Amino acid sequence: MNVELLWWEGCPSTERALEEVREALSELGLSHVEVHTREILTDGDAREAGFVGSPTILIDGVDLVPAAAEEHIGLSCRVYRRRDGRVTPIPDDLRVALPRAAARAEVN
Fold this sequence. Notes:
The structure is a single chain. The chain is of the alpha+beta class and 108 residues long. It is 32% helix and 19% strand. It has helices spanning 14-27, 43-49, 94-107; strands at residues 3-7, 35-39, 56-59, 62-63, 80-81, 87-88.
């Protein structure tokens, strides 16, 4: 399983997101999975990566929360909506997506 956190220097949520991803992996018994980080430096990098803001969490190359068509690709901060409507820098579905990806990785 490949877990990657894409980030931009102007985002204040990067460290918190990284900690939450690592914590979620640990809770699921997946602390051996390394979280790779990739800084998005330019708008060109953002276009190439399909980067709609920091933090973006990719699991096996797929955005944990696929961007809506109206979301702008570029250097910006990203927020996610919780099911109760509040905003957060970490998607609610993180702890659901990680075990699914781990199960797929075991099958392959």
